[in-house]
Amino acid sequence: MPRNTSTGVVTAFFATVTGFALIWHIWWLVLLGLLGAFATFVAFAWRDIDEYEIPAEEIARFDRKRRNARLALISPEQNA
Amino acid sequence: MSAVAPAASTTVDIHRLGHHGSETSPADLGPAPKRIVVGYGFWLFLLSDFVMFAGLFAAFAVLAGATDGGPSGRDIFNTNTVAIETACLLVSSFFCGMASLAVVSRSQLWTQSLLIVTGLFGVSFVALEVMEFSELLARGAGPQRSAFLSSFFTLVGCHGLHVTAGLIWLGTMMAQIFAKGFTPPMLRRFQCFTLFWHALDIIWIAVFTLVYLMGVA
Amino acid sequence: MFFRGELTPGDEERGDSGLSAGVRGYLIGLGIAAALTVASFSVVGSKLIWPPGIPVALAVLAVAQMGVHLVFFLHITTSPDNTNNILALAFGVLIVAIVVGGSLWIMLHLTTNMMPTDNPLDLHRQH
Q1: Are B63 and C107 in contact (CB under 8 A)?
Q2: In chain B, what is the straight-line distance between the N-terminal and C-terminal CA atoms, in Å?
Q3: Rounded to an integer, what distance in angstroms lies between the CA atom of residue B115 and that of residue B94?
Q4: How many whole angstroms separate alpha carbon B201 and alpha carbon C70?
Q5: What gap in Å lies between CA A42 and CA B95, rounded to an integer?
Q6: Measured between CB atoms, which of A48, A50, A63 is closest to B1?
Q7: Cβ neighbours of residue C47 under 8 Å, at least 6 residues apart?
Q8: By the 8 A CB rule, do B122 and B166 touch?
Q9: Residue ranges of E strands in B165-207
């Protein structure tokens, strides 16, 4: 599974800043916004660990638990 | 319920799956290796990029005659500059190919040097194009002059922006390869970059043929 | 587990042929592409081609050069390992053809069917 990250939100913030600056012709802010977005992205791309593994047994365990819970819901009603 | 364990280190011929005698069905093998998924996915993105350029090409083709009494292609296009730009991109693509061979050999020195050369030719292309655009703007033949010029600047400018973004990507990637070495994620990113770079040259072929050469012919 | 028989775009099925074969492939691609480029530029300037045929000649040379790029630089070949990539490319080409061809067709009919009036303020005229 991919590791969680806040990159999307942060980049979106910088993109909003850039868009605002482009509309109002605030050129220095455009540059700042673009640089901020780029820096965020590079920081995100630089990480060495980008995912974590969930072992198959753990998923099987979750699934068993869920199935048993659902069976417990159904069977008493069928017997009633 | 037990999970299906994938078979360890066997070579599977995907062309024989499910055929007489073989026991593994494609479903048992799980998803394709990351390299293939990433490469194919990026290829699909590049095709969508081609479609976007096709829209810009269509707009240019429709508006090529709408010069509003202003300059037409014949008046503003300089085939010598275009020839040098084309050569720059083509040679840059060639050196990108050489760099991919260096990556296969896992040679840090060769990879970085060849990528620098790739980048330099790309920078020359962008510089020439910026000079061409600023010259046109100075002459009053900017994107506001006529529909023809609007579509010209949009199409060629979009391609130039792609090349510039590619150069920024190249610089960042060179730094990363230097810092991290040839790890699987870096190899995947490098492969995506080569796909991108060659695709840009393919689009430029269409640009210089349909915009410049047909404009001058 | 290694899937024999699947290549991602950009992969070269080289196996043991080594570095020199790879370099040769790229050099051949560069040479042919350069020759096609020179041909395109010379078609425009010289009188070798009948003028109404020049756009067709340019288009043919451009398509050929795109093919050279695809085969020699991107290694999109017709081997069975590349089938998925070819299919995706074919679909992309189809969409491009529809977009460009359709736009041209529609706009040509539009301009043909809108006969110029005597109204000088006819804003549909683009000339």
Answers
A1: no
A2: 71
A3: 11
A4: 10
A5: 25
A6: A63
A7: none
A8: yes
A9: none
Number of H helices, E strands in chain A: 3, 0
- Give the pTM: 0.85
pLDDT value at C2 more than 80: no
For residue B159 the two structure tokens come to 């391609």
Q: Which two tokens stand for residue A80?
A: 């009633």
Q: Which residues of B149-160 are buried (b: 16+ CB within 10 A; e: fewer)?
A: bbbbbebbebbb
Size of the A and B interface in Cβ pairs below 8 Å: 19
Per DSSP, the residues of B76-123 read H--HHHHHHHHHHHHHHHHHHHHHHHHHHTT-HHHHHHHHHHHHHHHH
Of B2, B168, B185, the CB nearest to A60: B2
Q: How far apart are CA C4 and CA B32, in angstroms?
A: 11
Between chains, do B185 and A50 touch, taking CB under 8 Å as contact?
A: yes
pLDDT tens digits, B62-84: 998 888 888 988 889 999 999 99
Distances (CA, A) of C14 to B112, B124, C76: 23, 32, 13
Name the nearest CA neighbour of B203 among B161, B174, B168: B161
Contacts of C91 (CB under 8 A, 6+ apart): B47
Q: What confidence tier does B120 reach under pLDDT thresholds 50, 70, 90?
A: very high
Q: Please give the Cα distance from A29 to A22 (Å, whole number).
A: 8
- Chains C and B are in contact, defined as 3 or more C-beta pairs closer than 8 angstroms: yes
Report chain C's C-alpha Rg in angstroms.
22
pLDDT for B209 beyond 70: yes
Residue carrying structure tokens 């980048």: B119
Whether residue B38 contacts residue B196, with contact meaning beta carbons closer than 8 Å, is answered with: no
Q: What angle is formed at CA B60 by the lines to CA B57 and CA B65, rounded to 5 degrees? A: 150
Q: Rounded CA gap, B207 and B190, in Å?
A: 26
Mind telling me how many Å the CA of B23 is from chain A's nearest CA? 23
Smallest CA–CA distance from B6 into chain A, residue:
A56
Q: And the tokens for A58?
A: 């753990």
